[in-house]
Amino acid sequence: MYASYQYLLEHGVVGGTMISGFEQGQLIGQLLVTIINGDASQLPMFTHSAGKEMFNHQALLRWGGLTVPDDVVVMNKPQSWFERYNKELRAMTIAVVIMAAIIVFLSLIIRRLHKSEQKLQQSRALFEGGV
Hints:
- The protein is built from 4 helices and 3 strands.
- With about 130 residues, it is mostly helical.
- Helix 2 links the parallel strand 2 (about 50-55) and strand 3 (about 75).
- The longest helix is centred in the last third of the chain and has 45 residues, at about 85-130.
């Protein structure tokens, strides 16, 4: 079944050129502002529907997996693992990079300490040998 109102996508409609009540309200609001400002010479302000082609993924599967063009919006489409956990993956990547930088920094400090200890031991050996 096809429909023209977007809210029907949630109730088993396959899809179609959908009109959103929110978008219609925005267009009417803009038209009203134009009329109130006294610039009614541009009327009619819009001559075509602001609808978008939208389809419901579950309904498409139920009706035999109908194929749709790539440029349309498909609602209720299952997300891939990467799409679902994108924010978490970014946070983990940033955390790993920060930890790696800290590890490198600490290893440089440890290396410096070892060199300082070696120089101190050499200095002690020279001091004890000279006394």
